[in-house]
């Protein structure tokens, strides 16, 4: 349930994790799940304690980057940077090392060291053209750091590269690019709350049309239609126009006679 809810409802996921802890606090997977649930709800002190417990139980270092990020969340970026230099980092797989680099760059930015953050993210993984699960996030972080340092043209380039690698929509690189280009998105959808007003206005127009139709004399309408037909055939150079008009008038007389 924690895994199912952590993205859409982290508070509910956290509630489930507390129940799991009461039932099986000596299971490493439970401690890890509780750590991620606390992390998702920004309870960084709880998250760090659970991650440390899971690490002691398993001996694995895979949680090292998220533990360092908890230190950042607690306002201790210097501890996160210290963890980035520990031997545990060398035991991480490639994905873990990239994650650790992202955390270290974030810690540099927390300390106001923008250029150092940019240098921290410059790596073979960033320069590679191969797309890996971490590529979009790494390029995005680099672009964001460049933008924070005032290097807008370079930032635009790397946001574009992040967008190319972001097949799952893990970042908002497209929105950041649009923002840099001065593009504003406007929601053109009609507000459903205005439907009644629109319907009332339409009904009013129909009522006016109906009133106009009721006031018109059917004989006058028929005469106007015939006059229009005569005008359509009118030719200034046509000497037959006068008899044609008279013929139409005669037809009108016959029509009224028939109606009578």
Automatic annotation (TrEMBL):
Gene3D superfamilies: Tetratricopeptide repeat domain. Residues 192-219, 232-243 have a biased composition (Acidic residues). It comes from Streptomyces amritsarensis. Residues 188-260 are annotated as: Disordered. SUPFAM superfamilies: TPR-like. This is Tetratricopeptide TPR_4.
């Amino acid at each position: 349930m924690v895994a199912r809810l952590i993205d859409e409802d982290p508070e509910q996921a956290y509630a489930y994790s507390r129940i799991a802890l009461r039932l099986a606090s000596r299971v490493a997977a439970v401690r890890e799940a509780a750590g991620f649930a606390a992390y998702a709800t920004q309870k960084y002190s709880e998250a760090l304690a659970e991650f440390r417990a899971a690490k002691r139980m398993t001996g694995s270092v895979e949680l090292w980057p998220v533990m360092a990020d908890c230190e950042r969340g607690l306002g201790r970026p210097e501890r996160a940077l210290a963890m980035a230099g520990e031997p545990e980092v060398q035991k991480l797989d490639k994905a873990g090392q990239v994650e650790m680099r992202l955390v270290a760059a974030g810690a540099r930015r927390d300390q106001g060291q923008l250029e150092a953050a940019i240098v921290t993210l410059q790596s073979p993984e960033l320069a590679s053209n191969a797309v890996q699960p971490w590529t979009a996030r790494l390029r995005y972080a680099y672009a964001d750091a460049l933008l924070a340092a005032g290097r807008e043209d370079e930032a635009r380039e790397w946001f574009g590269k992040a967008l190319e690698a972001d097949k799952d929509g893990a970042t908002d690189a497209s929105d950041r690019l649009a923002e840099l280009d001065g593009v504003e998105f406007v929601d053109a959808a009609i507000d459903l709350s205005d439907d009644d007003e629109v319907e009332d206005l339409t009904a009013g127009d129909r009522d006016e049309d109906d009133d106009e139709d009721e006031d018109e004399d059917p004989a006058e309408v028929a005469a106007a239609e015939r006059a229009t037909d005569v005008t359509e055939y009118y030719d200034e150079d046509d000497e037959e126009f006068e008899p044609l008009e008279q013929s139409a008038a005669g037809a009108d007389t016959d029509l009224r006679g028939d109606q009578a």
